UniProtKB/TrEMBL annotation:
Pfam families the record matches: Lactamase_B (PF00753)
Record domain Metallo-beta-lactamase: where: 32-245
TM regions (residue ranges): none
Residues covered by region (Disordered): 133-163
Name by which UniProt lists this protein: MBL fold metallo-hydrolase
Organism (species): Nonomuraea harbinensis
Length: 340
């Protein structure tokens, strides 16, 4: 299957009481979020809600109507993670229906923090983080509110933990905590239909962004978590995947193994790269040497920042594995391969 544009997407009845509704992400190459509606006697429960934008809202409302669902009847919204293309419209759905919003407690805490911080403070935090990673001044965002493009998502009414059953009368929808893409990312196992809502954790054609923010944190290991989370969903048995982007696919475990392999190779190449260098490298220098979908010189500053976050996550995992050393000195952190 190849990537198809949003214009070619339609709401689909998947059987087993679940509809998928494509909701556009205007201006984003990802195209759309697949919002799922699960029928229940108390009203449908949505998995994710889509990007907060008038066009997206219209698509969600009309798509649900195609499925015979009045948005005012929605019982609840489970958000796989706090990113705006997933959680953005959850608040709007709650306004229209009185639905609850549920997400993992770790992402709920991030949303609470985002709602408590003014956007100009978020911007200066970002500039400071980029500097410490070794970003040259031309890569720093202009203006203070670099992160203020979207309002933070609506706070959660319910906080989920691994193993919880979501409030979905008559059905069994279990929370599988899959940290990595975000600390509180969850997959949702529809046990009565052998399906897994995978959010961004396992997508058929692409892999999710795994980054560390701020880049030089040494108390977390999101890539290590992500790899473990891939193993975890691979162990759930044979499940069909209902991802939040692209298209549905039959075998979660096989795709999870493929993605794990992709990152292990990337880790190996990165370690080899560092081992060739006599001098320790900053996070920025490391990112500039790695392979991205475009040459480094053509990446705009925003994407360089994301690449640096991804480089930082790979460096951190190698550090946790004991094959890399962090040299804190000065105002920016550097990394060096350990001799084996
Ligand atoms: Zn995401």
């Amino acid at each position: 299957m190849t990537r198809r544009s949003y214009a070619e997407q339609r709401p689909l009845d998947l059987g087993f009481g679940v509809w998928s509704v494509p909701v556009p992400i205007p201006g984003n190459p990802l195209g759309y979020t697949l919002v799922y509606a699960i029928e229940s006697p108390r009203g449908p429960v949505l998995v994710d809600a889509g990007w907060n934008h008038p066009e997206a809202w219209a698509a969600l409302r009309d798509g649900l109507a195609t499925a015979g669902i009045d948005v005012a009847s929605v019982h609840g919204v489970v958000v796989t993670h706090f990113h705006p293309d997933h959680a953005g419209l959850a608040g709007r759905v709650r306004e229209e229906s009185g639905a609850w919003i549920a997400m993992h407690e770790a992402d709920a805490a991030i949303v609470d923090m985002m709602n408590g911080v003014p956007s100009d403070v978020r911007g200066s935090f970002q500039v400071d983080m980029l500097r410490r990673a070794g970003a040259p001044s031309e890569d720093l965002p202009e203006g203070p509110a670099a992160d203020g493009r979207q309002d933070p998502p609506a706070p959660a009414d319910r906080r989920l933990r691994d193993g919880d059953l979501v409030d979905l009368p008559g059905r069994k929808l279990r929370v599988v905590h899959t940290p990595g893409h975000t600390p509180g990312h969850v997959c949702l196992h529809l046990e009565d239909a052998d399906r897994l809502f995978t959010g961004d954790h396992v997508l058929p054609g692409i892999t999710p962004h795994i980054g560390i923010y701020p880049f030089d944190r040494d108390d977390v290991d999101p890539l290590g978590d992500f790899l473990e989370s891939l193993t975890r969903v691979g162990e759930l048995g044979e499940l069909g995947a209902l991802p939040a982007h692209e298209w549905t696919f039959p075998d979660v475990a096989a795709r999870a193994a493929q993605i794990r392999h992709h990152h292990e190779e990337k880790l190996e190449r990165l370690l080899a790269l560092l081992a060739e260098r006599a001098e320790p490298l900053t996070i920025w220098e490391t990112a500039a040497m790695m392979t991205w979908n475009r040459p480094w010189s053509e990446l705009p500053p925003m994407l360089r920042g994301m690449a640096a976050g991804e480089a930082a996550a790979h460096l951190r995992t190698l550090e946790v594995r004991g094959v890399l050393r962090r040299l804190p000195g000065g105002d920016r952190v550097r990394f060096q391969a350990l001799e084996s």
